[in-house]
Structures are given as structure tokens and as C-alpha cells.
């Protein structure tokens, strides 16, 4: 692995940081307070190629490598995890899935529109009884009169209420269990498709999260993503990409905590001197810096393997597990350093604290990541 950034990667970081500082951070607090989904910021990302960075240029993307993708995701995560979630779903779960599993016609139809922000996508896998047990899909798809008819529901779907297209997973043959799951590309305007927004979330308040309902939703054979029965394989490969972007976004949270705390610790005085002179404050900031560097290097290791087209499931799980847990630690200590002010949204650390927790839950909990990691060492699959 080469630890030196390319000239392109350095330019990407400079561009992404400038955009985050000028076009995301100034609006993050109010968007969080008002639970406002920032479409206007998404549109500003388009001319910079931020909605399709790693997608090949022939399909409307910028053709960036995975390290550049992580750099962008980190900078967006530093500014606002809600927007980072929207971006992660759009690129890592939806665009990458279509790129890897779609037909040429599907790629030409959807990828340019996703990369340009013309349409928004969601990844509809989770159900009320199928979270970590993703193979326990209850949504059904039955073939009837030359069409697939979908019935069921999904929950905790990021972008679900604002999406124009959904990658939706349904059981086509229950006898085959997870091998009977199939993926579909479903237009959300299709008759029988509806969404209810989920409100009152602890964090990610400026991102959209919804429950989806399907009542006799009819789609043609051309809506199949991959082949019948490949849905579970598609879901797992997509989560590899999703976990990568979650990990990179968590590095951004840690960096945001470091930035906020170092500035505050220099300015805030107690007992007649800056609190940054107190050893216990320095201890908390030092741990943030170590966690940031460790998490960032784990993300880059996974990205380096992805660039080389080498399978990186375990390395991605390690990065996601470590970075998400480290983000929670950093945000908790950041609130502690700010004291009473950390309990107010006058400063960003309380938002980091609320936003960080979900990263240990969605796209595979920390416990699931540990099972993946342990299985790779033991060669034994845990019973879950």
C-alpha cells in the first residue's frame, strides 16, 4: 500500500473540504433542528461530481478511485452525518449495486440520472423482522401473468421517503430461504408503493428515513436486478460498499470532534488557565487523534484492496467496526470536554454524539462485524 496521496487525491481533498466548510457546515445545525432534507445541497454537489465520484465516466460519474471516494465521504461526514448518509446510500448502496449487477440497459437508464441528482435512490432490505437476520425476508414477489407482484413492507430505509427508485429485496421462493431472495429495481411512483417517514430519531435528523409498503406492486421482468435468487448475494456485496462509506464518514466525525475540541480547549478557561492545559483534557484529545489515524488507515487499507479489485469483506468489516465505535468514543469525550455547552446544539459536538451511535447499528451492527471478523480467523460460522 502506497501511503502517499496522488495529485488527484490531494485535489479531491481540497475540493471536498472547501465544499464541506462553505456549503454544508453553515446549514448543518438548522437542517438538524428542522429535520430538513437538504436537496439544495445535493444539487450543489452535482457540478463537482460528488454524487457519482467513483462511478465510471461513461455512466455519468467522475471515475474516481476508492481512496478518493473515502476522502470525499470523510469530509462530508465531518460536516454533517445526515448528508453523508444520503450520499452513502446514493453511491455505495444504489449506484454501485446497479454498476455491478445491472444490465447494460439498466446502467444506461439509471446511473447518469443518479449521478446527476435527477433521481434519488434507496436500498430497501431491512424489514420489521429482518434486520441483522437479512435472510429472513417476508416481502414476497410472485410471478403472475408475465409480471412480478410484490407485497410486504420495509422499515428504517434511508432515503426511502424521497427516493425515485428503490432497490427492493423480496422472497421469490421461501423453500430456498436466503437463496430464494431476488432484487428488483422499483419505481417508487408505481401503483401500490407508499412510504411513511419515521420521525423522532435520535440523530441523522436531516436525512430521510422511512417505512415502505407494497400492496400488489407490479413490475416487469426488466425490473430484475441480477438473476432470480441472487438477491442475498447482491445485498451482501452492496453492504461491503456501504460499510466502507460508513467507516469513512465516521473518520469524519472523529476529525470534527478533534477540530471542535482543540479550538474550545484553547479558548475555554477554568481555574485561570485554558482547559487544554489540563492533563485529562489532553488525554481525551490524544485518544481521539489515535482513533482517527487508526480508523483512517483501516479505511484506506480496505480502499486499496478495492482499487486492486481484491475481495475486502473482512477488511471493510474491521474498518466499519473500529471507526464506528471510535466515533462514539470521540463524540462522548467531546461532549465531556465542552461540559454544559456540549449539551447544547450551539456547538456541533452534541450532534456528533447523536449521529455517531447509529453507525454502530446500521449496515451491520458492531456485533455482526465482529462475527464476520471472527469467522475469518476461526473458519467457523457463529449461530445467530
From TrEMBL:
Family in the record: Belongs to the acyl-CoA dehydrogenase family.
Keywords of this entry: FAD, Flavoprotein, Oxidoreductase
Organismal lineage: Bacteria, Candidatus Schekmaniibacteriota
Cofactors, names only: FAD
UniProt GO molecular function: acyl-CoA dehydrogenase activity; flavin adenine dinucleotide binding
Name by which UniProt lists this protein: Acyl-CoA dehydrogenase
Domain Acyl-CoA dehydrogenase/oxidase N-terminal, residue spans: 6-118
Family annotation (PROSITE patterns): ACYL_COA_DH_2 (PS00073)
Cross-referenced InterPro entries: Acyl-CoA_DH_CS, Acyl-CoA_Oxase/DH_mid-dom, Acyl-CoA_Oxase/DH_mid-dom_sf, AcylCo_DH-like_C, AcylCo_DH/oxidase_C, AcylCoA_DH/ox_N, AcylCoA_DH/ox_N_sf, AcylCoA_DH/oxidase_NM_dom_sf
Amino acid at each position: 500500500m502506497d501511503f502517499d496521496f496522488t495529485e488527484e487525491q490531494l485535489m479531491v481533498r481540497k475540493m471536498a473540504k472547501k465544499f464541506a466548510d462553505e456549503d454544508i457546515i453553515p446549514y448543518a445545525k438548522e437542517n438538524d433542528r428542522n429535520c430538513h432534507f437538504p436537496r439544495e445541497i445535493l444539487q450543489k454537489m452535482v457540478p463537482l461530481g460528488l454524487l457519482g465520484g467513483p462511478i465510471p465516466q461513461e455512466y455519468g460519474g467522475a471515475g474516481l478511485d476508492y481512496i478518493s471516494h473515502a476522502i470525499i465521504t470523510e469530509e462530508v461526514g465531518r460536516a454533517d452525518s445526515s448528508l453523508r448518509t444520503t450520499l452513502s446510500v446514493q453511491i455505495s448502496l444504489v449506484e454501485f449495486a446497479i454498476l455491478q449487477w445491472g444490465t447494460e440497459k439498466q446502467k444506461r437508464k439509471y446511473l447518469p440520472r443518479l449521478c446527476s441528482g435527477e433521481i434519488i435512490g434507496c436500498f430497501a432490505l431491512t424489514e420489521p423482522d429482518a434486520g441483522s437476520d437479512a435472510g429472513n425476508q417476508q416481502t414476497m414477489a410472485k410471478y403472475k401473468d408475465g409480471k412480478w407482484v410484490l407485497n410486504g413492507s420495509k422499515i428504517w430505509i434511508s432515503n426511502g421517503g424521497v427516493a425515485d427508485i428503490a432497490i427492493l429485496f423480496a422472497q421469490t421462493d421461501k423453500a430456498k430461504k436466503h437463496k430464494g431472495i431476488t432484487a428488483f429495481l422499483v419505481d417508487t411512483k408505481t401503483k401500490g408503493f407508499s412510504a411513511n417517514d419515521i420521525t423522532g430519531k435520535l440523530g441523522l435528523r436531516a436525512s430521510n428515513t422511512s417505512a415502505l409498503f407494497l400492496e400488489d406492486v407490479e413490475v416487469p421482468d426488466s425490473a430484475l436486478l441480477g438473476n432470480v435468487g441472487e438477491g442475498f448475494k447482491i445485498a451482501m456485496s452492496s453492504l461491503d460498499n456501504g460499510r466502507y462509506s460508513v467507516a469513512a464518514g465516521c473518520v469524519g466525525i472523529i476529525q470534527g470532534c478533534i477540530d471542535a475540541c482543540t479550538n474550545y480547549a484553547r479558548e475555554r478557561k477554568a481555574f485561570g488557565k485554558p482547559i487544554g492545559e489540563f492533563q485529562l483534557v489532553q488525554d481525551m484529545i490524544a485518544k481521539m487523534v489515535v482513533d482517527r489515524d487508526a480508523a483512517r488507515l483501516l479505511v484506506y487499507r480496505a480502499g486499496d484492496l478495492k482499487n486492486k479489485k481484491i475481495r475486502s469483506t473482512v477488511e471493510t468489516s474491521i474498518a466499519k467496526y473500529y471507526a464506528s465505535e471510535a466515533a462514539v468514543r470521540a463524540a462522548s469525550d467531546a461532549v465531556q470536554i465542552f461540559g454544559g455547552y456540549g449539551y447544547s446544539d450551539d456547538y456541533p459536538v452534541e450532534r456528533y454524539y447523536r449521529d455517531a451511535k447509529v453507525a454502530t447499528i446500521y449496515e451491520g451492527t458492531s456485533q455482526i462485524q465482529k462475527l464476520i471478523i471472527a469467522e475469518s480467523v476461526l473458519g467457523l460460522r457463529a449461530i445467530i
